[in-house]
Specification:
The complex is a heterodimer of chains A (348) and B (470).
Chain A: H1 19-46, H2 51-65, E1 72-76, H3 78-81, H4 86-93, E2 97-99, H5 109-121, E3 127-132, H6 143-146, H7 153-161, H8 167-178, H9 180-183, H10 185-193, H11 195-200, H12 218-235, H13 242-258, E4 261-266, E5 269-270, H14 271-274, H15 277-296, E6 300-303, E7 309-310, E8 315-317, E9 320-321, H16 323-347
Parallel strand pairs in A: 1-2, 1-3, 3-4, 4-6, 5-7
Antiparallel strand pairs in A: 8-9
Helix pairs in contact in A: 4-16, 5-13, 12-15
Chain B: H1 7-21, H2 26-42, H3 49-68, H4 72-109, H5 127-143, H6 152-160, H7 162-165, H8 173-181, H9 188-221, H10 229-259, H11 277-281, H12 286-297, H13 307-325, H14 329-347, H15 349-352, H16 361-383, H17 387-396, H18 405-429, H19 434-437, H20 440-457
Helix pairs in contact in B: 1-2, 2-6, 3-4, 3-5, 3-6, 4-5, 6-8, 9-10, 9-18, 9-20, 10-16, 10-18, 12-13, 13-14, 14-16
Classes of the chains: A alpha/beta (348), B mainly alpha (470).
Amino acid sequence: MTPNMPNHLPQETIPDASPGRVLVCWTVALVGLFLFNALAGLMLQHKPVNYTTALVAHKWQLLKQTQGNLDMLILGDSSGNQAVDPVIFKQQLDIDSLNLCTTGGTTLIDDRMMLEDYLQKHDPPKAVMLVHVYDVWFRQAKLEALSHIPVSVAQLSRSAGADELSLQDQAKLYTYRYLSLYHQNQSLQSIILKPHRYLQLQWDWPSSGFNAQTKHTPEAWKADLRYHTAKAQVLKNVSIHQYNLRELQLINALAKKHQMQVLLVMSPISSELYKQPIFGDFYRQITDALAEYAQQHDQVQLIFEKPLVVGGAHMQSADHVLADAAAFYTTQLAQQIRPVFEQENSQR
Amino acid sequence: MLFHSVIFPCFFILVYVIYLAMMRRHHVQNLWLLLASYVFYGWWDWRFLGLLLLSTLTDYVVAIGIQKADSQSTRRSLLTVSVLVNLGVLGFFKYFNFFASSVTDLFGVWGFQLDWVTLHVILPIGISFYTFQSLSYTIDVYRGQLKACRRFDSFALYVSYFPQLVAGPIERATHLLPQIMQRRRLDWRQIHLGLFLILSGYCKKMIIADNLAKIANDTFAAHSTLNGLDVILGVVAFAFQIYGDFSGYSDIARGLGKLMGFDLMVNFRLPYFAISPSDFWQRWHISLSTWLRDYLYIPLEGNRCSSLRCSINIMITMLLGGLWHGASWNFVLWGLFHGMLLILYRHLPWLKQTDLQSTRIGHRLPRMLLMFMLTLIGWVIFRCQNIQQMADLAGRVSLAVSPSTLETLKLMCLLLVPMCLVQVIAQRRRDLNWILHGPLPISAVIMAIMLVALAIWGVRQTTEFIYFQF
């Protein structure tokens, strides 16, 4: 009500609605919302827009499709995804391997789940390689990244932090998985704004799982250098996160059971970053901890305890290499792991 | 506590469930709502609850005193106390630094350096809203339009009712107080409308206002690097941002009120469909414009006086209306600009012939577009930090396009075209809630689309409502 309201203005009138009409109206609206949400979820599952989401889905698809008989499983994060080329391993070591590296957001949980899945269906490989950026080791997994792993939410919930995962976080995992409309809204916005791009979108994934990157953006690389330096300055002291340690123990137990070697591999890193004393000291806290772990377990080896450094011109970011550096890195890596396979072959 | 923060739904559900459980005892309900309102307000800064209580206590006591007083002079003195306390608090917290720095600057121009004390006064949220609301009560009692409220809890709830406490609508005691004093009834139609208003409010705030805020903020922050159409788009974005933000808040407040059986006044009636300044002020922030009309413009004799005096009255009213928004010269200028428009429209022949009742597109459309453009100029004054920025922006307006123009235009069309279509139909039918009056499938589908749009396009970072700062 407005005092002395002129009658040329639009009015607010109370709708003449029965309880039945009100209920039906809101129920239909909510059902419409959930239907649309389900459709959006299916659409994005079938053809994701987000690179990381698509990458996780693709790697799991590769895992499901593999015929087995692999000598080595390459697991890890996005740095490994674009740094380790199984074709070079085949050329240099004559071994069959598959790059299943996904994203750092899933930390080692994704690695362990993939290994378990592989071992359930196939004979064990000779070795499991875990390629991670130094900072993945002291991080906790991101719920959103975990939600993209195609296993049940209950299983994810258990993996994300055992009993420590709060009810709120458990609920979040469900919403990340099932409320696509809300959590994948950026993807949906881009589809609405540029539908032609979505229709033309084709993810081109090589069957080896290695995804070479060629685009060099100096600004992004510099920004990432600053980010890592700042992180070293702020965090100062770090150690391996308890959940990552737990996952590593689980992987190690599987390795023992199936007589596999576990190769902990440090990702390549920008030389400009590593030469900074503050960063170098920070970085070594993780490599020291991993070296100590490897020393305590016979079947575990740490590769590149002193990291392989690459010049900024060959890097996409501070810890992600471009294609030419990937070839160099994989070649160096092959040299490092050659004894593992020679030893294995001689034993067999 | 923001309406679109995570904590608010939890707070409201708790308050509402207990409120419903007390449905048969409305005085207990009032106490509960009063407690909830103080928690809601104290969530920002509990210390400012003291100011709210001061305003409440003063007007409660003064109004009873006015009613009991035998002589007109006592009544007038008591009213003066109320005005002084309310405006004194408002003046100190909102305008002290503004006037202090303005006087210092003025003396600085003449070569005098004043060692003026500048206090770091924090503006208590919603102070302009509840001060005006409380003040209107005492004035109404003084005028004999209302009996003084004897129940302190009821009156305190009138001043602090949480849905409209911090950003309006500025309610009148004649309208809200009787609703507080009597038992509320809930019916399905009210709940239906309330839920729809809440949905509509969230859409306006989170889809329209918060998405357009990025465009508007970029325009006003980087105005010196922008050119041509980008500047125009930025100003249009701000026009709809402030509309979506403020009318969205009002809709949510009114919707929450409806769920509890309260009817809060309509604060916006499609303002950008206005065809003249007076029409605009009957559609924009109606609770403030009618407050200024009833408690300032009409007591100044309104238009029942000479043409010159009437123009002066308009300018005084609009100047104070501008100043109400904030302690800054751009708000003063904005008020004066709208005052000038009101006077021009009263005197220029073509503009004077505006027929508000006309539905002819040939009559309405050119006037509506002209009024919208004038409103945009007003928003530039409102949003700019200083005159230099206003001049700079004005100098950059042209039809030149930049690489990002098309993208911005596309996004704005996507956000605004659906809302404008809904509003065109509302204007044509003169029915703000036409969506609820249509066939059931249409109503349900539109509401589903609104829910989907909110999920996809709703901005999640909780940004404060613009009018909180006023």
